[in-house]
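Narrative of accomplishments. A recurring question from our advisory board has been how the design workflow behaves on a single, concrete structure rather than in aggregate. To address it, we present the structure tokens for one chain from the evaluation set, followed by the sequence designed for it. No filtering or post-editing was applied between the two.
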């Protein structure tokens, strides 16, 4: 970004008040902001009492060695006890914790009492494999109940887990096993993906031939797909159904220090080499439990919660495992893709389980928009009462579509901004309090301090843009980058003194509400103006023919950078339609002003995305500037890039 502040071009006037009934019964009301403002640490100390501590903490925050925080440092607790056992002790053993829906249609409902037995057996199995508190366990599993059970079993015995998304290659797995120096890997023969079994175990076998992975003593294998030809390393590999099923279902959880490591998780890799983010126990669970209660207004007796993320991402850690289970929720866990075997699968699941709260990502919402309104319309979605979004800025048009076609124009939509590094939600509307604005995450949650600053670390005025920063430590903050304190300092704490630099651009609107504008690295410099990718993409998506857009700045002799847009059209639009590109350019010009008009617009069939579904703009920049592509290893499908490159001549002719 140049020394000029980030332009504020997009005007969005639509407003949605919280439904009266929801507001009247909301878990958290406007008063929480006041209380937290008056005594931030007191507020978090109060939230820590949501948990059961073996030793109650007397200190809240130790910030004597910034930016290395300690929260609730003299408290002791067990995370798995908090997520499972205490609910059973409170008489809720018969409540369903997880409704599992396999992609092939197999189902399993697991009560809290059953979950307690499963987690205890798995904990006993890990102990039999020699896992001790502090040892790292890598988990490479599909979205099956054993993934949740494994995570809780690790937490129960104090062994930090490191989940590796099941779609990653042997290379990515090996790097992560090595970086964390894992002792055990938990995997499966395979999982179901788009109607077919897809093997996982061969990637583990291959990863374990790589140097640096020698400390893995055991591989625990869940039988999911039943493939016959599975390679087996005697003495190292052991079946889950042999080892875990043979264990006692009794295990007494032991308490650990609040700062005991809970997990390492690598960021999605949108911007480059993934970072091993370290999270600990007491502060993490406090904020995750509180935010899940506040942002989703969870009523554990009646709600059915569904977060569609993979457990391999932070969203899955915090809002499939630790948030919902610490709050005693009933939730859905779905193994597969949204379009298997048909494009209405998700809506069928909402109808089947009576899902009341749905938490998903803009990429999925835009895919549903592309597939057409008629698909969700075939299902009864009337149980839904709150919709959430996370992962990327949500374009206002996608937000409105989500509310209208999934939420019957009735449910609040909460756009939640956070990162692997923040551990939990930081900026979001509260469904019973905030008048929502499509496309904006709006306000820091009670107890969270976030703002937007310029190059000189000065807070920008309302109506201006700059860098998103967090100005006070928060309980679920990362503690460091695993094994690399210096990178932790350099990446997050050196850009601005005493402030956490999130790497995202943002603006404050006239009311002081925060709008996320994409990554700072992606900001375009056009004729002396900093223009955000998000605003131009949102303007494109607001055209009725466009479902999805990715925008990058490509070097240009006249304007420093020229805006180059890649668009996916909605179902019935024709990419070869005469005048289409001019029509889209004019539309952006009208929405945002002439400065934001893309110089080139290229209709494409697909966009390069990370495996968590985020658009990878740096690769599109390589394409737009005719460079060799950078690292594509975290990409879902690298053939997308070949396809886009082959279409490029059309783009140049628009110059
Ligand atoms: P890497 O750090 O390796 O590049 P990543 O940033 O994609 O990967 P995550 O931690 O999964 O890894 O994603 C956090 C980022 O996602 C945020 O910094 C932000 O750019 C984006 N993001 C998440 N939620 C929102 C949201 N509600 N609005 C706008 N952006 C969001
Ligand atoms: Mg990041």
């Amino acid at each position: 970004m140049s020394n000029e502040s980030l332009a504020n071009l997009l005007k969005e006037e639509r407003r949605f008040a919280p439904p009266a009934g929801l507001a009247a019964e909301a878990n958290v009301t406007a008063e929480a902001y006041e209380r937290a403002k008056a005594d931030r640490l007191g507020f978090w100390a109060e939230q820590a009492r949501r948990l059961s501590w073996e030793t109650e903490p007397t200190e809240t925050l130790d910030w004597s060695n910034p930016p290395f925080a300690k929260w609730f440092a003299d408290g002791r607790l067990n995370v798995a006890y908090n997520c499972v056992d205490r609910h059973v002790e409170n008489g809720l053993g018969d409540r369903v914790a997880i409704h599992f829906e396999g992609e092939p249609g197999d189902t399993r409902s697991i009560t809290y009492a059953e979950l307690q037995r499963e987690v205890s057996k798995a904990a006993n199995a890990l102990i039999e494999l020699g896992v001790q508190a502090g040892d790292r366990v890598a988990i490479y599993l599909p979205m099956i109940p054993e993934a949740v059970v494994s995570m809780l079993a690790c937490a129960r015995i104090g062994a930090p887990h490191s989940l590796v998304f099941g779609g990653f290659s042997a290379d990515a797995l090996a790097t992560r096993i090595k970086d964390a120096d894992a002792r055990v890997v938990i995997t499966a023969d395979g999982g179901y993906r788009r109607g077919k079994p897809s093997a996982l175990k061969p990637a583990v076998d291959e990863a374990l031939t790589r140097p640096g992975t020698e400390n893995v003593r055991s591989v625990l294998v869940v039988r999911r797909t039943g493939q016959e030809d599975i390679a087996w390393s005697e003495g190292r590999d052991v079946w889950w159904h042999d080892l875990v099923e043979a264990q006692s279902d009794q295990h007494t959880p032991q308490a650990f220090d609040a700062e005991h490591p809970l997990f390492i998780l690598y960021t999605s890799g949108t911007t480059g080499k993934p970072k091993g983010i370290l999270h600990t126990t007491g502060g993490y669970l406090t904020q995750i439990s509180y935010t899940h209660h506040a942002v989703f207004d969870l009523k554990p007796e009646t709600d059915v919660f569904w977060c569609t993320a993979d457990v391999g991402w932070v969203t899955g850690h915090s809002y499939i495992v630790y948030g919902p289970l610490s709050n005693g929720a009933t939730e859905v866990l779905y193994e597969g893709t949204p379009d298997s075997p048909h494009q209405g699968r998700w809506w069928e699941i909402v109808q089947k389980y009576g899902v009341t709260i749905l938490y998903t990502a803009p990429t999925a919402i835009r895919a549903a928009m592309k597939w057409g309104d008629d698909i969700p319309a075939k299902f009864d979605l009337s149980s839904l009462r709150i919709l959430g979004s996370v992962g990327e800025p949500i374009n206002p048009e996608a937000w409105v579509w989500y509310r209208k076609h999934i939420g019957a124009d009735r449910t609040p939509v909460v756009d939640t901004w956070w990162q692997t590094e923040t551990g939990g939600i930081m900026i979001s509307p509260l469904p019973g309090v905030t008048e929502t604005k499509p496309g904006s995450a709006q306000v820091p949650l009670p107890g969270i301090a976030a703002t937007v600053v310029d190059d000189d670390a000065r807070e920008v005025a309302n109506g201006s843009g700059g860098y998103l920063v967090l100005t006070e430590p928060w309980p679920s903050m990362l503690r460091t980058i695993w094994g690399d304190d210096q990178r932790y300092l350099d990446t997050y704490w050196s850009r601005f003194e005493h402030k956490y630099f999130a790497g995202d651009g943002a603006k404050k609107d006239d009311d002081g509400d925060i709008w996320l504008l994409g990554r700072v690295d992606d900001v375009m410099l056009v004729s002396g103006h900093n223009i955000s990718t998000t605003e131009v993409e949102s303007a494109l998506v607001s055209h009725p023919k466009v479902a999805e857009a990715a925008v990058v700045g490509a070097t240009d002799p006249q304007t420093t950078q020229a805006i180059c847009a890649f668009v996916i059209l909605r179902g019935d639009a024709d990419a070869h339609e005469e005048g289409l590109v001019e029509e889209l350019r004019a539309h952006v010009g009208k929405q945002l002003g002439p400065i934001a008009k893309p110089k080139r617009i290229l209709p494409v069939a697909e966009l390069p995305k990370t495996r968590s579904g985020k658009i990878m703009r740096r690769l599109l920049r390589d394409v737009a500037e005719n460079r060799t592509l950078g690292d594509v290893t975290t990409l879902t499908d690298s053939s997308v890039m070949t396809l886009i490159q082959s279409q490029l001549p059309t783009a140049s002719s628009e110059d």
